[in-house]
Amino acid sequence: MRVLRWPRLRSPHREEKPPETQARYLVCEEVAGLLRLSPKTIYNMVYEGRIPCIRLSNKCVRFDRVEIEKWLKRKTQKDLTLS
Questions:
Q1: 22-82 belongs to which CATH class?
Q2: Which of 9, 31, 35, 69 is such that its CA lies 20 to 30 A from the CA of 25?
Q3: Alpha helix locations (H) across 1-83?
Q4: For each of the chain's 83 residues, which pLDDT tens digit applies?
Q5: pLDDT of residue 21
Q6: Does residue 63 contact residue 48 with C-beta atoms inside 8 Å?
Q7: What is the pLDDT of residue 23?
Q8: Which residues pair with 31 in a beta bridge?
Q9: Using DSSP, how many helices (H) and how many strands (E) does the chain show?
Q10: How far is CA 69 from CA 1, 6, 11, 58, 78, in A?
Q11: What angle do CA 34, 74, 60 make, to 5 degrees?
C-alpha cells in the first residue's frame, strides 16, 4: 500500500541568510515575500514599470537585491516627505 503525502510548502517565515550568502538576483516570488505582496502584484508592477527589474526575456524577470533595497528606501523617504 502506497502512502500519499502532501507536498512540502516553503515557509514564508524562513530565516534570512547572512548578507554574504544571499543571492544577488531574486525571482518574483522572493521579492513578493520581501515586500509582503502577492507575486501577481509584483508582475503588474513590472508591467507598469513601477519596480526596478532585469528582463531576461518576455517571460523571465529577475530583480537585483541592491536595487530593490534602494528603490524601497526612496519610496519610503518620498512617502515620509509627503506626509
A1: mainly alpha
A2: 9
A3: 28-35, 39-48, 65-82
A4: 666 666 665 655 555 565 566 789 999 999 999 999 999 999 999 999 999 999 999 889 999 999 999 999 998 887 767 66
A5: 62
A6: no
A7: 81
A8: none
A9: 3, 3
A10: 51, 35, 22, 24, 14
A11: 50
Give residue limits of the domains in the chain. 22-82
> b/e for 49-77, b at 16 or more Cβ within 10 A?
eebebeeeeeeebbbebeebeebeeeeee
30 Cβ contact list (under 8 Å, min separation 6): 23, 63
SS (H, E, C) 24-36: CEECHHHHHHHHC
Q: Residue 46 is placed in which grid cell?
A: 513590472
Residue whose C-alpha is closest to residue 67's, from 24, 13, 5, 19: 24
Cell 537585491 identifies what position? 65
* Whether the Cβ atoms of residue 61 and residue 49 lie closer than 8 Å to each other: no
